[in-house]
Amino acid sequence: VSELERGLIHELIDTGRRFYARGWVMGTSGNFSAVVSRDPLQLVITASGVDKGSLTPEQFVTLNPESEVYPPGLRPSAEVALHRAIVQCTAAQSVLHTHSVFTTLLTTWLKANETLRLYGYEMLKGLSGVRTHEHTEWVPILENSQDYAMLAHEFRRLLTENPTIHCILLRRHGLYTWGTSIEEARRHVEILEFLLEVYAREHALQNKLA
Ligand SMILES: [Zn+2]
Q: With CB atoms counted within 10 Å of each terminal CB, which end of the chain scores lower, N or C?
């Protein structure tokens, strides 16, 4: 393991501790990755089935394009195809995936083909490239599936057609976001989880008061 990889793993461990404390990666859910090198593409990613609140350096797997050999007992997350798709279609150096209560609720509540647009919130300025609260952030929602090759194809299509999006939601599943560093990706999770919770609570409140 190189010095660079060690540093990235360290930052992802810290990310897991923070997200677990917020209830965004309960019961071994979620997964985190970072780019070690782009050419050839090399990713470090959390192994499958590990507790994200107490990660250790041994619970990460390095993915190389040519070798699919992993240390005994360790498998990369099943969702690795989605991480690869995001890294290949954007300038992302890190991809973070969470399973929060509010992303699950909101994507359940919104019907198929209904669009989710976030507009007018100051917190939108925490998304890279957004300078004003008068910004409309389109949040695409895809149907969940265990066919990750198909989902990766859908991710590629979305990211190619809409290069300015900051995240993708999977229905009744969770959030995928990314950043040009682990720090930026982590900020995007915090901003988006905040905004999605506000949006859900706002609509619940409106229904109650109506
Ligand atoms: Zn997931």
A: C
Tell me, what's the pLDDT at 112? 66
Residue 73 has a CB neighbour count (10 Å cut-off) of 7
Q: Residue 168 contacts by C-beta under 8 Å, 6 or more apart in sequence?
A: 140, 141, 142, 155, 158, 175, 176, 177
Tokens for 201, please give them.
């609570």
Neighbour count for residue 207 (Cβ, 10 Å): 8
For residues 149-175, one letter each, b for 16 or more C-beta atoms within 10 angstroms of the residue's C-beta and e for the rest, the string is eebbebbbebbeeeeebbbbbbbebbb
Q: How far is the CA of 99 from the centre of ligand 1 (A)?
A: 6
What is the 97 CA–ligand 1 centroid distance (Å)? 7
Q: Give all strands (DSSP E) within 66-128, no chain letters.
A: 94-98, 116-119
How does pLDDT run across 159-187, given as a tens digit for each residue?
999 999 999 999 999 999 999 999 999 99
* pLDDT 10s digits, 99-120: 999 999 999 998 766 789 999 9
